[in-house]
């Protein structure tokens, strides 16, 4: 698995939030409906008066059956009343490029992370958060997960 580490300062995501169900494995699968995403993109551009090329699909407060799911953008703009704001703390992130947001790709990525990547590299999940970074211009997706060095490594 190709990966990189990113030390990222705290940042703000502005968008919409819903409580969604996780799949049978407890994995968050973001909504990959292209027309819905395009509607969000256009709304964000109008409300925030900025061009939107990158969308974030953020999952926080995940339990076995549900997750708070945000779709939005990283911004320093003031949050309009029709949207919600999520503060993400400073973290070390492991970033993995993935082929798509399909359930198969996401399930396989998490399987590979827990079966191979975490044990070999000596890291563990840091917080109950993850996000998918969707880059429209180059049709790429990344899974960002916060990590810390494992105490047992």
Automatic annotation (TrEMBL):
GO molecular function terms noted in the UniProt entry: DNA binding
Keywords: DNA-binding
PANTHER family on file: TRANSCRIPTIONAL REGULATOR PROTEIN YOBU-RELATED
InterPro entries xref list: AraC_E-bd, GyrI-like, Reg_factor_effector_dom_sf, YobU-like_regulator
Domain of life: Bacteria
Pfam families: GyrI-like
AraC effector-binding domain boundaries: 1-148
UniProt KW DNA damage keyword: no
Keyword DNA-binding: yes
Gene3D superfamilies: Regulatory factor, effector binding domain
Protein name: Predicted transcriptional regulator YdeE, contains AraC-type DNA-binding domain
């Amino acid at each position: 698995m190709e990966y990189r580490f990113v030390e990222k300062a705290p940042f703000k995501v502005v968008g919409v939030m819903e409580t969604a169900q996780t799949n049978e494995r407890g994995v968050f699968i973001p909504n990959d409906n292209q027309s819905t995403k395009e509607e969000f993109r256009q709304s964000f551009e109008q409300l925030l008066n900025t061009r939107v090329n990158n969308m974030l699909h953020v999952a926080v407060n995940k339990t076995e059956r549900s997750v708070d799911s945000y779709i939005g953008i990283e911004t320093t703009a003031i949050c309009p009343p029709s949207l919600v704001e999520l503060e993400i703390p400073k973290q070390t992130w492991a970033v993995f490029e993935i082929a798509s947001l399909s359930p198969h790709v996401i399930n396989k990525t998490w399987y590979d992370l827990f079966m191979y990547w975490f044990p070999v590299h000596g890291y563990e999940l840091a917080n109950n958060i993850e996000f998918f970074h969707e880059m429209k211009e180059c049709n790429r997706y990344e899974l960002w997960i916060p990590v810390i060095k494992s105490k047992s490594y």
